[in-house]
Write a structure and sequence with these properties.
The complex is a heterodimer of chains A (199) and B (469).
Chain A: E1 6-9, E2 11-14, H1 21-24, H2 44-47, E3 70-73, H3 85-93, E4 97-100, H4 105-114, E5 117-120, H5 123-135, E6 141-144, E7 149-151, E8 157-159, H6 164-172, H7 176-181, H8 184-193
Parallel strand pairs in A: 2-3, 3-4, 4-5
Antiparallel strand pairs in A: 1-6, 6-7, 7-8
Chain B: H1 7-14, E1 16-18, E2 25-28, E3 31-35, H2 40-49, E4 59-62, H3 79-95, E5 98-100, H4 110-116, E6 125-128, E7 142-145, H5 148-157, E8 159-162, E9 166-173, H6 182-193, E10 201-206, H7 208-212, H8 215-223, E11 232-235, H9 239-245, H10 254-264, E12 277-282, E13 289-291, E14 299-301, H11 315-328, E15 343-346, H12 348-351, H13 354-364, E16 374-377, H14 382-390, H15 393-400, E17 403-404, E18 425-428, E19 443-446, H16 449-458
Parallel strand pairs in B: 3-4, 3-6, 4-5, 6-7, 9-10, 9-12, 10-11, 15-16, 15-18, 16-17, 18-19
Antiparallel strand pairs in B: 1-2, 2-8, 13-14
Helix pairs in contact in B: 2-5, 6-8, 13-15, 13-16
The chains are: A alpha/beta (199), B alpha/beta (469).
């Protein structure tokens, strides 16, 4: 997992509420046994025409946003299916952070495991950000994880919450499983202490 | 005396392996269910690190998402699906995990076979790389969906790092009218609180309606907790739970059973226990529900009509509704009754159990599927299929003109070749009406098995209560 410290990038605006993981990556692409290469299928049904050519009016196809690493989406982003293919696809496309007013629980967890930063800001700041991006679509903005702060293109600052454990892990690019494996002795002790039928 | 606790808190506390200030809790997992879609990358991770599956005896695998439901030879839809299932076989073989494969008589949808085999038990922590894991909460277990990284964590350590979620009591009161089912209750709840109403919470369903539901109804209720944003939904175990479990293959037997029973009876929330949040729902006047939009919260009584975006003040909600109606091809104010449909899908982990098939058969008996309508009946498991055949339900379906299929997730997720064509309308007993969920361009109305059967015989959205007279 790559470390995440601070990021300055253009942002792509996708102002739709309740974007579910079936939209982020449709189920027909889940037959893969790998994590890599899913960026092509990101938002496939919104992004491509039936003949497979890109839809010109879909923001991810807009050349102005090439190289953008931040996605700004509507409320409750990532609801529905638990598929981790959703953050894998977002990362493979090039995103490192998603900004919304709320993230679905499983999706948020999946993001944090993969170094994709879910940035939750309040609705007022979110609507200000959307206004900014509509006025100046390719203006860069900054996300600083250490300070838990985002700087809007107009320079206005907002803070976002993240639990200390995930924050430190992301800053160091540290995998969660390494930490969990360090509990081997406690896990064995827990198992041994259980009633026989639960062991 | 100990502080009064909820069902959730009791189970959480029992499963704490380690807890350090400022860190998530290390929680022990009693049962890990895996399937072909969300596990391959987790096994690849184990191989890369040279790790084993720590507790293969607490891990159970089944192929259900990509599996065929029509072909007698069970030919897979494409090479990718075949490869994914071969990979599951190899992973289970290499790591010593019990697998219910395509030739198993006990296979089926993971959330149907867990309870059926008695693997799912009160007081357990249960996870699966699948958001509908909430289903198992019907037994008074803490059951929730996880991503593939967490599948790997559980395979390697039998534990997960979790922040303690908040609790919400969902109190449901009132006697359900004839023709109104658990599916209608959960659709009404999601319509009331929205698809993010439960985000950050574990639901505990309580109240007279819940107590009166059988286990299959309770599973339907818990199954769709995730559609309200709640990672888990639970119901306190009671005699209905114990009666369901008694004698099942992996349920405790003999003295073990007595000991388990005594323990399970201590699980229900203490009277004075408190929750972080409360939601109340009175279902005494509830009608059969149906969705009209592209998320499960967009539901109305079947006798209702499509909402008008002009009457919605919140600009985001209005925009979402306009987008949905555009996708669905529906007009504001249009009644749902009489809306023509092309396909009916009866099945899934939400409504693919025997009582669901009985309900659908009751409405289809002696009737014919409307001309031009395709009806798929997909049992939730092979065991449900055999039971339905023993009861003659398959004949009712076939004589009516429906397709009687093998078990699997089928058209709920449309990975196995069972899918809608672009533009087609379906009444579906599954759990998601997202854009393209049942096939690219397909348009889904979520409803109960009864309402689905009524649509099958009339060729349009219909009030099933009229068929029950």
């Amino acid at each position: 997992m790559n470390a995440f410290r601070s990021l300055t990038s253009k942002a792509i605006l996708l102002p739709v509420d309740n974007i579910d993981t079936d939209q982020i990556i449709p189920a027909r692409f889940l037959k893969t046994t790998h994590k890599e290469g899913l960026g092509k299928q990101l938002f496939a049904d919104w992004r491509y025409q039936p003949d497979g050519s890109p839809k010109p009016d879909f923001p991810l196809n807009d050349v102005r946003f090439e190289g953008a690493q931040i996605l700004v989406a509507g409320d409750n982003f990532g609801c529905g299916s638990s598929r981790e293919h959703a953050p894998w696809a977002l990362l493979d496309f090039g995103f490192r952070a998603v900004i919304s007013t709320r993230f679905a629980d499983i999706f948020r967890n999946n993001c944090l495991k993969n170094g994709l930063l879910p940035v939750e800001i309040d609705p007022q700041m979110h609507s200000e950000l959307m206004g900014e991006l509509r006025a100046a679509p390719d203006a860069p903005m900054t996300i600083d994880l250490e300070r838990q702060q985002i700087a809007l293109p107009n320079g206005k600052m907002a803070t976002f919450p993240i639990d200390t454990f995930s924050k430190n892990r992301l800053l160091k690019g540290m995998d969660e499983l390494d930490y969990l494996l360090s509990f081997e002795a406690q896990i064995a002790a827990y198992e041994a202490a259980r009633p026989v039928h639960d062991r | 005396m100990n502080r009064p606790q909820t069902l959730f808190e009791k189970i959480w506390q029992r499963h704490i392996v380690a807890q350090e200030a400022g860190f998530p809790t290390v929680i022990y997992i009693d049962l890990h269910l895996i399937h072909e879609v969300t596990s391959p990358q987790a096994f690849a991770g184990l191989r890369a690190r040279g790790l084993r599956v720590r507790r293969p005896d607490k891990t159970v695998a089944v192929a259900d998402h990509s599996t065929p439901t029509l072909d007698k030879d069970l030919r897979l839809v494409d090479d990718l699906a075949a490869q994914q299932i071969r990979q599951l076989e190899k992973n289970c073989q290499d790591f010593g995990v019990r697998l219910y494969n395509l030739d198993s008589q006990q296979r089926g949808i993971v959330h149907v076979i867990g309870p059926e085999l008695g693997l799912t038990q009160p007081g357990m922590t249960i996870v699966c790389g699948d958001s509908h894991t909430a289903t198992h909460g019907a037994f008074g277990a803490l059951a929730f969906g996880v991503g593939t990284s967490e599948v790997e964590h559980v395979l390697a350590t039998q534990c997960l790092l979790q922040h303690k979620p908040k609790t919400c009591e969902v109190r449901i009161e009132g006697q359900l009218a004839r023709g109104v089912t658990a599916k209608d209750v959960i659709l009404a709840l999601i319509a009331q609180i929205g698809v993010s109403g439960g985000t950050g919470y574990v639901f505990e369903y309580s109240g007279s309606t819940v107590r009166a539901l059988d286990m299959e109804g309770r599973m339907t209720l818990c199954n769709m907790s995730i559609e309200a944003g709640a990672r888990a939904g639970m119901i306190a175990p009671d005699d209905i739970t114990f009666e369901y479990l008694a004698g099942r293959l992996y349920a405790p037997q003999g003295e073990e059973w007595e000991r388990a029973l005594a323990d399970w009876r201590t699980l229900p929330s203490d009277e004075a226990a408190s929750y972080d949040q409360h939601v109340a729902l009175d279902v005494s006047h509830l009608e059969p529900m149906i969705t009209y939009g592209t998320n499960p919260g967009m539901g109305v009584p079947v006798t209702g009509s499509v909402p008008d975006p002009q009457q919605i003040t919140d600009p985001n909600a209005r925009a979402a509704l306009i987008k949905s109606l555009n996708y669905m091809g529906l007009q504001p104010g249009q009644p749902l009754l009489g809306q023509p449909i092309d396909v009916v899908f009866i099945g899934s982990c939400t409504n693919g159990r025997i009582s669901d098939l009985r309900a659908a058969a009751q409405a289809l008996k002696g009737r014919k599927v409307a001309p031009g309508v395709r009806v798929l009946v997909t049992p939730g498991s092979e065991s449900v299929r055999r039971q339905a055949e023993a009861e003659g339900l398959d004949r009712i379906f076939k004589e009516a003109g429906a397709e009687w299929r093998w078990s699997g997730c089928s058209m709920c997720i449309a990975m196995n070749g069972d899918q809608l064509q672009p533009g087609q309308y379906a009444v579906s007993t599954s759990n998601r009406n997202f854009e393209g969920r049942q096939g690219k361009g397909g348009r889904t109305f979520l409803a109960s098995p009864l309402t689905a059967a009524a649509a099958a015989v009339t060729g349009c959205i219909a009030d099933a209560r009229r068929l029950l007279v």
